[in-house]
Amino acid sequence: MEENYQSMRKLQRELPLSSNMEERKGLRLILFPMPLQGHINPMLELANVLHHKGFSITIIHTQFNSLNPTTHPHFTFHSIPVELSRTEASTNDVMAFILLLNVKCFEPFSECLARLLSDDDQEPVACLISDLLFSFTQHVAENLKLARILLRTSAASSFVAYAAFPLLLEKGYLPIQESRLEEPVLELPPLKVKDLPVLKTKDPQKYYEAVSGLKKAVEASYEVNSLYFVKECCPPAFDQLTQLKLVLYDCYRWDLLTQLLKKSPNLESLVIENKEDEECVKDYGEHDRYLRNVLYSEHRWRTTESVPICLISHLKTITIRGFKGYPHVKKVAKYLLKNGKVLTKMTVNNDELYKELMLERGSRTCWVELV
């Protein structure tokens, strides 16, 4: 955590003065920090960096460890009421406090976020950036159709251990036993049992369940369904990413796939899945317009100027499922198959698409499978 915080401090010091800030983007980001000092500081540092990059910043916070708006006059602050008893607010059981906040914050946070999204006097909201420990924000963001990014403030080694908690429980490393503190965790070298990030709590089982859900929360946060976000907030480089599952809704362009292919040079496995969006039909008013402009439009996929590196050198398996034989889907599949020079297998679940793909292979070793 300290390492991440110091990195952000260094980045902030290297930023030019506000007079040299980048042009305003006309977009607002909403941040929601966990009210623990080790979580608040990194979130504020991130807010400073993003503000310098041209985004307007709105911060939603609770009355616990409350933020002082006068120290950040360039941000907009909204405090939400969270009702906790004196005993609940003063507990030393950090995990119990976090779980309780997830319950108590749900309603006031949902109301505050909905109000901010409906404010036509402010810039459009590009996305929500929430602390990883606020797991309930996934449900709220999905209901409001808002893209969500999670900020993890702990060290990378801690997150690796958190993601492996189900395995650690299965192998008997957890709960931690005093007699095994110096024992190496064979599945997570070079960690020892004493290095595992475990909080003291009265209910260890709830803690293990909460931590096991962190990995799923991170995966869910990448189901980005905001076209505003794709256009205005280019994703960072994912140099270490080897497996990607991308869920796309009917109404949104495929710009995100283009961006991620370019940003993931070592990608080896790709899954593209369709999720129907009932609201999309309503937006177009008439079903015929929906079919013509969304499902049967050939212009929803734009090929890249140059073939992404991952297609030329690393991408070996591609799965496309949930889609019917729409023209834009055929264009995507044909492009991937033709330019995938090291592809070994492409799997589709549409007979019409399967027949057209049999003539498009760019790799002699690739075979197309219909499931």
UniProtKB/TrEMBL annotation:
GO terms for molecular function: quercetin 3-O-glucosyltransferase activity; quercetin 7-O-glucosyltransferase activity. Pfam families: FBD (PF08387). Residues 309-371 form the FBD domain. InterPro entries: FBD (IPR006566). Belongs to the UDP-glycosyltransferase family. This is FBD domain-containing protein. The lineage of its organism: Eukaryota, Viridiplantae, Streptophyta, Embryophyta, Tracheophyta.
